[in-house]
Input
Amino acid sequence: MGLNKVYAKMFLWLGFGLLITFLTGYIVSANQNMLEFMFAGSTWMICAIVEVILVIFLSARIMKMSPTTANICFILYSFVTGLTFSSIFVTYEISSIIYVFGITSFLFVVFALIGNFINIDLTKLGTYLLMILLGIVICFIINIFIGSEAFNIGLVIASTVIFVIYIAYDINRVKYLLDRFPSEDNLAIFGALQLYLDFINILIDLLRLFGKREN
Output
């Protein structure tokens, strides 16, 4: 299997994962009983913790998994993310979500093409991107206590920029991992997971900036 076939499978899994997440989130948000179950007690928090555990487990163990196990884990992660993502459909108007989804998709395509066609090895940026991202996360935590709206907007913009760059980085990285993964099917899932995280985070950041909230 060549790089193009890995890319094809990767984008297919990415699209499938996003579809699962958005359908799950919408269905939960449209059902009053499901909403009460998700948000009345600790269900949402439990799902969020499971979501974090799944993504860490999948990222760390994917090279040692069978392709079937990797596929199941990715589907499960997309579903659990959809459960927590239902809060987005409750918070923002559906027209606003669709609008921001379109903007996110445009940015994704542009920077995915850059990552694919650029002849520079972007994997060297990984450490710097991670350090900047961790710095942004720390600043978000600090701002919880400060409560500065201007600082928050600046952090959201910075987060958006980092994840947009991550799209090009993750696309580019697949080229250099092609010979290192024991299974190219697993590489497709790994790439889909990284791009999925980029897409979701950009979408959430843009909703924070431009999203119109429900009354």
